[in-house]
Amino acid sequence: MSKDLKILSSDSYLELNKDQSQHFSADNREHEKLLKESCTLYVGNLSICTSEEQIFELFSRCGDIRNVFMGLDKLKKTPCGFCFVEYYNRADAENAMWFLNGTILDDHTIHTE
């Protein structure tokens, strides 16, 4: 169960990621190491009606959650179908990635990375 958590591939994140990469001071190996130690999980294909509370309820089944960061539309400041779930430890994040990927929430099949 040592599959690495993947980087989000949505266009909005790629723009952010490119900007951050320009400011990332460590080499690529250090960047990869940090990704492998990450306790943060990307959750995609959420309904725009899915609440933070629903995310907490579902994802806390896999471990204690430190934070949930809901993706918001830049202009409207409304949910836009993705979030990040941060766990206290990597094992819980990996369990959530494996066990909750494909779960139906608000009539949407969610995707975890």
Question: How would you describe what is shown here?
Answer:
Helix content is 37%, strand content 25%. With 113 residues, it is α+β, with helices and mostly antiparallel strands. The protein has a single domain, classed as Alpha-Beta Plaits (2-Layer Sandwich), CATH 3.30.70.330. The strands form 2 sheets. A 4-stranded antiparallel β-sheet has the order 2-3-1-6. A two-stranded antiparallel ribbon has the order 4-5. One of its GO terms (biological process) is mRNA cis splicing, via spliceosome. One of its GO terms (molecular function) is RNA cap binding. This is Nuclear cap-binding protein subunit 2.
CATH class, named Alpha Beta
What is the fourth-level CATH superfamily? RRM (RNA recognition motif) domain
**Secondary-structure element series:** HHEHEEHEEE
Task: State the share of residues found in helices, binned by percent.
Answer: 25-40%
Strand line-up across the major sheet: 2-3-1-6
Q: What count of structural domains? A: 1
- Contiguous low-pLDDT stretches (5 residues minimum) are 1-22
Largest sheet: 4 strands, antiparallel
> Using DSSP, what is the number of strands?
6
CATH topology: Alpha-Beta Plaits
The average pLDDT value, as a whole number, equals 84
CATH architectural category: 2-Layer Sandwich
- Gross morphology: globular
Termini, distance in Å? Answer: 14 Å
Structural class: alpha+beta
Query: Beta-sheet strand percentage?
Result: 15-25%
Whole-angstrom Rg: 14 Å
Helix tally equals 4
Pfam family, one: RRM_1
Main location: nucleus
Organism: Myotis myotis
Protein name: Nuclear cap-binding protein subunit 2
